Amino acid sequence: MSSDLPVSHLDRERKGQGRRLRILLLNQCFYPDHVSSAQHLTDLAEGLAEAGHEVVAVASSRGYDNPEKRFPVRETWKGVEIRRIWTPGLGKKARWRRLVDFATFWINATLILLRLRRFDVTVCLTSPPLISSLGQVMASLKGGAVVPWVMDLNPDEAVAAGWLKQGGLAEQVMSTLQKWSFGRAARIVALDRFMAERLRAKSVRADAIHVDAPWSHDDAVRWDVAGREAFRAEHGLTGKFVVMYSGNHSPCHPLDTVLEAAKELAGHATLHFLFVGGGSEHGKVRAFAENQGLKNITCLPYQPKERLSSSLSSADLHLVVMGTPFVGMVHPCKVYNILALGLPFLGIGPEECHLTDLAARLPDRRYARIGRHGDVKGLVEVLREAAATGPLPPSEESRALAAEFSQSRLRPRLIDVIAAAGQGHAA
Q: Is the peptide bond before 32 cis (omega within 30 degrees of 0)?
């Protein structure tokens, strides 16, 4: 975690020391999509616009998890100009479908960016993979700084997931593009110390790396007793001890051990597993429950942001999963909303990862349990113990830890990084 606490760029603007910058945000997902990267980039866009900058976002015109959902091709939202890109919306059922959607996004994004005038700084996320390379190409042609915000690290993630062959042609090309774009970046935002270590191992300059986690949605998430009870009643969970996994269901967060534990606990009187969100593995969870005839598993789609408090508050124990090969490639950002609510979480992952770093900082282990992939018996014991303990009141220690990852603390720091990168390239 970055330890410096700079004066916010908004404060500098008020003092007349900053300059109004033209800033591009480039990512497949943006407002009003509900996936994590869309929400965080939307938060950032709003903060940049409030700081007085001219902000343009280029994103897909289709919903990330529901391609049938369409957004306007152009609109202005809270002072942010949004340009949306047509893609065929083939979905995620096969890799070739994703590849075609990604390639179409790249081509159409290139056509849009060529028509737009230069930007002082371009902030690139990581969907589609290596989109920061396109940002660098445009910056090379027109000028300006590039700041990749590394939500996931590719092609590393694709190799770890078995989607790409290590040393194959595709991996070599992607690695070359990654090295080129990262090497030319003004700053790179890593999400934790493990990702920073991976970047340094790729010869990224240490002074170019800024380490800060994605913030909690403390503007939208609060402990909601009435919402908790209403949500539980709506979904038949009244009187249950609810174990919730909420967010993106992907191979990076393998749920096999959890599902086997749910199968073992099918006869438990009160334990119930609730999977909320989307992603390529969400359907597999539903299929597992149906094939095994499990009545203790419920699957729900992503909940809109206005219902996030009631949804998250309805859990008695939250699951946060980190796949062992993916440490430093992805980040368990869902944990910050859980901490902000003060609710207990069960982290499932390797011995050394960001989850164990956080758990070690909470004195009451009931609020930060840890399990291991493959240890179904151990996980069943932990879950039985949690259910026997019953629902716990929100923890002030958890909330104090969450304050370090709040939007009010982390968003101004990121705005400072972006503004500093852009000041040296302002037209």
A: yes
The token duo for 372 is: 């291991």
Question: Residues 150, 127: contact at Cβ < 8 Å?
Answer: no
Q: In this predicted model, what pLDDT tens digit does every residue of 286-306 receive, in sequence order?
A: 999 999 999 999 999 988 888
- 401 sits in which H/E element: helix 396-403
pLDDT tens for 130-175 read: 899 999 999 999 999 999 999 999 999 999 999 899 999 999 999 9
- pTM of the predicted structure, to 2 decimals: 0.88
From the CB of residue 111, how many other CB atoms can be counted at a distance below 10 Å? 9
How do beta strands 22-26 and 54-60 pair?
parallel
CB burial of residue 230 (10 Å; 0-12, 13-18, 19+) = middle
Report residue 219 CA to chain centroid gap: 17
Nearest Cα residue to 184 out of 171, 203, 166: 203
At 356, is the secondary structure helix, strand, or coil? helix
**For tokens 């992503």, what's the residue?**
302
Percent of the chain at pLDDT > 70 equals 95
Reported as a single tens digit per residue, the pLDDT across 278-290 is 888 899 999 999 9
Q: Report the C-alpha gap between 115 and 134 in whole angstroms.
A: 14
